Predict the structure.
Amino acid sequence: MPWTTIRLWILMLGWPTLAIGSIYILYKSFDFLRRIRQTSLGKFVLVTNTGIIISMWCLGLVATYYLLQDAIGGVTIVLPVFIIWAVIMTVVLYLANKWGNEAVEINIKIQRTKDELEKSVRQRTKELQLALANNVALIESIGDGLIAADTKLKIMMVNPAAQKMLGWNFADLKGQIMTAETPRIEDEQGEEVDVKSLPANKALLTGKRVKTDAASKDTFYYVRKDGTRFPIAITATPISIKGQTKGIIMLFRDISAEKELDKAKSEFISLASHQLRTPPTAIKWNTELLLDKANGKLSPTQKEMVEEVKEVSEKMIETVSSLLNVSRIELGTFIVDPKPVDYREVAAEALKELKPQISLKRLQVLEKFDKGIPTIPADPGLAKIIVENLLTNAVKYTPDEGQVAIDIKNQPKAKSILISVKDTGCGIPKKDQANIFKKMFRAENVKSKIEGTGFGLYLLKSIVEMAGGKVWFESIEGKGTTFFVELPYSGMKKKEGTSRLGQ
């Protein structure tokens, strides 16, 4: 075939092929750019392919020039170079297109995942914002005061009810310590509450909810911004996340009305008890006169009836005395006049007074007193009530021929003495143990069998805690109970009042 014909075929086939290929490559480049949403990768592919096309067209023009001029260089050099370049570029463009498609698919998947994540994040954010709004609305609608604090008791949040009760704005309270001057928490005597005694601190240390109410022995008072104060009932609950305490929430409410009502009730009981005490005392005295042989001999039937009246009157006097003691404790009107007291002597005296009951029930009494037990400042009457209540309970609830053991130990390291009274009585059911020190509470297993008022242990706990001590017990139903009373060397503090307990 003549060289001229070959040149014409090359030109006729080469240029349309180059033009069609260029258009196709540009189309694929723009499509690639569109599918991957104008990212830098798409722009890079477009620019690269455009450069390759321009270089191929330039090389094609040079080859055409030489072919048209019938120059030897065009045939021997340019034409083979053009063909080789075209083959290489075709392979490069094919691979680029293939890899581009793979990149497009990966990018589309990434973009789809990104869109789904963004949608999920937007939805979750919306849900959290709604939940937060609901929680804020709930907190703001609570009628009780609410204060949230961190593990260092620094205030983080205060609801509107708390701000209204205290007279302080949140801006004033934020970052303050709960026991600081803003807001100040006081005890009955107007002293600032030590952080160790604060329910919120106890809840943080124990990880358990701590509650106080109008019936609690210790009442806390919040001081308002204007200096006035009001009694509060507190519920302190630790904030726990995955088993770790992160802070504390304290709910409180004003119990002024409850305290006033409780005071009025105690005053009424005190007044009524005083009035009720006289008749049974007079009955007791007269029955003793009737039983005295000097005033005439009674028939066996008369004697039995008079002794029954005397026994009933003594029980009435005991009940009225307990009511008086409870009302005096709750009103705080009892006298505390400390003197050096040896609790071994108090125990010996109490056992002497209980000797008739001990003999009647044929009980075995064990006494174990450490040597060198120091005398402790205490009101003799209150010290007697502590020991008497421990021993009376043990004797009362131990069956015939049982055993009662009293042990008084010196604890120099703890700077205290420990009194324990163990019996082999009926024990306290597990379900009743949490309530055993409550006023007028009696365990189910003794209510119908053994008489009692339910005041003894309440009085015991009140007096022991007033003296800075602790009282607790260990008990197994049907096997017996051991009560423990720990009293510090520092003893009781002097207190003015209008009457003495037990009188």
Notes: Residues 265-331 form one domain.
